[in-house]
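task queued by scheduler; priority normal; single chain, no ligands, no partner chains; default sampling; output format set to structure tokens
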Amino acid sequence: MNIERVSAISLDKNTAEKYAREVISERFSQQANKIKYLGGGSFGSAYGIKFDDGNSIVLKFLRAKDMLDKEVSDLNLLSSKCPIKMPEVLFSRKADEKIPLDCYAMQRIEGKSAFCAWSMFLQSKRKRKAFADQVTSALHQIHCCKNDKFGNTLSPQFTDWTEDYYRPFAQAILQKAEELYIAGEISQNIINALRAAWNKFDVIFSEKVTEACLIHGDLNIANIMVGKNNKITGIIDPLNSMYADREFDLFQLDNLGGKRFFLRKTYIDKYGASKYCDAKCAFYALYQEVYCYIKSGALFNAIMNPLIKNMYKRLAQL
């Protein structure tokens, strides 16, 4: 597998607002009353559009090529399987000379990210567990959607998760990381952890994955929306959804304070896990973070360092 850095189209907020107004004028008879930046990552930027009549939508610009069809397809697929509301895609627009980025509009989910709802972290243990129960039940419903093959939701083609897909994928990440280490872009600490994990790959992934389950790909508390009284209003922002080992979806549950809500523990207690699930999740988390760095060029030590520490902890338990 060839893993290389993705070139992202630059997009400042003023230009994004200009493009957003152009898209709105093409699609709607009314103009936008307010355009607000909602957030984004390395390759996408989302804007809230509020109309004069009070209705609102979200417009997402994709800053890398060949993302549009998959993002739209994944949102439609996941929303049809998830019992918690997910955004409905309203329309999509391909890049052209007028607006050089692909974009799509979707329904706006009311509320705010659970990660920003600080009162949630202070709730009683009972309420936090109730939150975890609702989230994990929804995630399991997504996982119950299965395919005969593993891989990309648009064209799953791999018969065996570990040998056909994930081992080559992880090996490609390690190989590229070695190149970046030689170039001085990756630290000794990171490459040592990647190597140590790789040396135990056959143990960590010794149990065969028998079911190709649909995964969200990025379900952490930042992508769970809550409203009044911290009630869940929706789930947003799937990332690289695929038919995969369902445990590939579980490491994200610990991120950004997810442990405070017992998310991964609750899922495992309810639906079970493989013998080496903890080590697998540590491996998935570490290698995925390095993969994201390779693709985007953005490295966050506040995220990376705990992943390295956890990887060594799980290796010591094998």
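post-processing summary
- The longest strand covers residues 32-40.
- The CA atoms of residues 281 and 318 lie 13 Å apart.
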